[in-house]
Amino acid sequence: MRQHLPHAGPVPRADLGARARDWSEIQERMLVPLYEAVYGRLDVGSGTRLLSLGCGSGLALVMAASRGAALTGVEASSPARLALARERLLRETWGAQTRADIRLTDRLPAEPAGARTPAYTLVTAFEPIGRVAGDAEELAELLTAATPLARRGAPVVLVGWGPPERCATSAVLRVAARLADQDRGTVRLRPALRDDLEDVARRTGLRPDGSGRVACPFGYADVDSALKGLLSTGLFDAAVAATDQAQVEKEMTEALHPYRRADGTVWMPNVFRYLIARTR
Q1: Distance from chain centroid for Cα 64
Q2: Thinking of the domain 13-167+188-218+270-278, which architecture would CATH place it in?
């Protein structure tokens, strides 16, 4: 779920701060079941040195720190999200962890693993691919730069959207794709493909070593909360650039109607897929 899409038009600075807060307070928690499943399967704990790519506002890092992991979070696309991650993670200690065990940055560490730099034992890329044209290529490029920082055989976790028929949010994303298509200069949205994650692993020389699917329903207190949360992903930026905010929100509201409950809440079942690949 992306904060920015290239060529979708500039977002005012004030709006970026508000959108990062919406991401942190509303949307980021939707993938908590995924984080829990991955950390449990890989036994993340005090012996883990985690490199988190695209760490957002840091919720997955908080969960790893609470398990005792030392961690580095990299968030290059959104300074506002990175600032929120620092607020969350650097204002206190986490169990046996100290601030020295937590590093947050807007770029990858420059020095590869070696005698002076302990290797990472786990690399995660929790931002799901499979919705934006070129996102697989972008992730492959990032992993090519990141994997030399990990030890040999370390797990690298990639995440993608599940099949459209298993993701209720696909109905709302189709609104973004249709409206964005009116502007030929914007980035195209696309459906998730079954082998997206394996293709990225192959391009970057990683060895697939297991996968899983996790139910991650998107639940919101009301339609307004759903609009804020979904818009905070950046997946609707191209649609807004091609039309306008009011039009996008109107059509999103219509697409959300089947998922409104009697009490006004919005509930959209989704499935996300993760791949565990190993460095060579």
Answers
A1: 15
A2: 3-Layer(aba) Sandwich (3.40)
pLDDT at 100: 63
> What is the Cα–Cα distance from 226 to 26, expressed in whole angstroms?
8
Q: d(Cα 20, Cα 172) in Å, to the nearest integer?
A: 20
Tell me the residue ranges of DSSP E strands in the chain.
49-53, 70-74, 102-105, 122-129, 155-161, 207-215, 218-220, 266-268, 271-278
- pLDDT score of 91: 72
Long-range contacts made by residues 242-249, C-beta under 8 angstroms, separation at least 24?
242/179, 242/180, 242/181, 242/182, 242/183, 242/186, 243/179, 243/182, 247/179, 248/175, 248/176, 248/179
Structure tokens, 92: 């206190």
Asked if residues 52 and 81 have their Cβ atoms less than 8 Å apart, the reply is: no
Query: Where do the structural domains in the chain lie, given as residue ranges?
Result: 13-167+188-218+270-278
What is the spatial distance between Cα 52 and Cα 187, in angstroms, rounded to a whole number? 25
For 251, the token pair is: 């059509």
pLDDT for 191: 62
Q: Are 270 and 166 in contact (CB under 8 A)?
A: yes
Q: How far, rounded to the nearest angstrom, does the alpha carbon of residue 140 sit from its chain's CA centroid?
A: 15
Helices 245-256 & 223-231 angle (0-180, nearest 10): 120
Residue 204 half-sphere exposure toward CB, CA atoms < 13 A:
28
- Residues in the chain with pLDDT values less than 50: 2-10, 13-14, 185
Query: In this structure, what DSSP letter does residue 270 have?
Result: -
Task: Output the pLDDT for position 5.
Answer: 38
The structure's pTM equals 0.90
Q: Check residue 26 and give its pLDDT.
A: 98
